[in-house]
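Risk register update: the risk of archive-format incompatibility is retired. Evidence:
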Amino acid sequence: MKRPFGYQLKMLHWFVDQTMTRALAQMELTASQGHVMAYLCHRKEAPCAKDIEDVFQLSHPTVSGLLARLEKKCFIEFRPDEKDRRVKRIYILPKGYEYLEQMQQVIEHNESDLIKGFSAEEVKLFDSYLNRAIQNMKEVLDQGTIDQGGTHL
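Archived output:
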């Protein structure tokens, strides 16, 4: 029996998330926290929580919780924006930079495990297919063409 693509993608996400979390556990990080830290480390300017919400397509409460836990573990701190004191910018603390290389290695290793056995052409195709599927579903959401019962209008 063929499983629906949505189910397969959910299972793939679960396995990727679990392997990342297991590998990052020694640093006291979850997969989500590791991805946020990697994002923060590669930014030229300190972002705010809204930037993370937009990039990762996460809700405000989810991002607030992630950032609060990273702050509690001394990976990040919040500082007011110099131009707009209402905005809190996120800065990486020394502990965050200390683990940066390890976090990046974990992410790269997980990525290579994901595509193990794929040819270079298959990797390109896989990336292309995933991006197209994401775009298709984003368009459906953006058009608001699904009623509450899940039926396309």
